[in-house]
Automatic annotation (TrEMBL):
GO cellular component: plasma membrane
Keywords, in A-Z order: Cell membrane, Membrane, Transmembrane, Transmembrane helix
Protein name stated in the entry: Putative oxidoreductase
Keyword Phosphoprotein: no
Subcellular location, record wording: Cell membrane
Membrane topology: Multi-pass membrane protein
Family in the record: Belongs to the DoxX family.
Length: 150
């Protein structure tokens, strides 16, 4: 097993930046989590006011019954986004968001036939949510404040 170098132990071209990078590490991660969560909330806001509005769309993707999956999609995007943004139940909310995004990758790449260019944003968003599903919310999260994580 090899040791993974920490940011402070890596050989930087400009060593004086090591303190800056270390100091901003958690803040940058928190900003990414909050922005990703709020973007998901924004995307789910129109769905949450009409949770059954996507019934035909989800059934068109092969998810039956649509009356079950449409509200689940709405809740995952809207409430899951809020949970991710504040860092509460970060891992399960991020995992659920990642699954939603992987479905959109399939939709754009395979169903619609747009390939990578159509699925690119969904791939990036799925990767972001995978990161938080594995990493959790960090010290700037409700999970950390209550001292419990999933």
């Amino acid at each position: 097993m090899t040791d993974v170098p920490t940011p402070s132990s890596r050989r930087l071209i400009i060593p004086a930046l090591g303190g800056l990078y270390s100091g901003l590490h958690d803040l940058a991660e928190t900003i990414l989590r909050v922005v990703a969560g709020l973007a998901l909330v924004t995307h789910g806001a129109s769905k949450i006011v009409n949770p059954f509005g996507a019934v035909e769309m989800v059934e068109g993707l092969g998810f039956y019954p649509g009356a079950f999956w449409s509200p689940l999609l709405s809740a995952t995007e809207f409430f899951g986004g809020i949970l991710i943004a504040i860092g509460l139940l970060t891992r399960p909310a991020s995992f659920a968001a990642m699954i939603v995004l992987l479905v959109t990758v399939w939709f754009h790449w395979i169903t619609v036939g747009q390939g990578y260019s159509g699925a690119e944003k969904s791939i990036l968003w799925a990767a972001i949510f995978l990161f938080f599903a594995i990493r959790g919310g960090n010290r700037h999260s409700v999970d950390a404040r209550i001292g419990k994580e999933f």
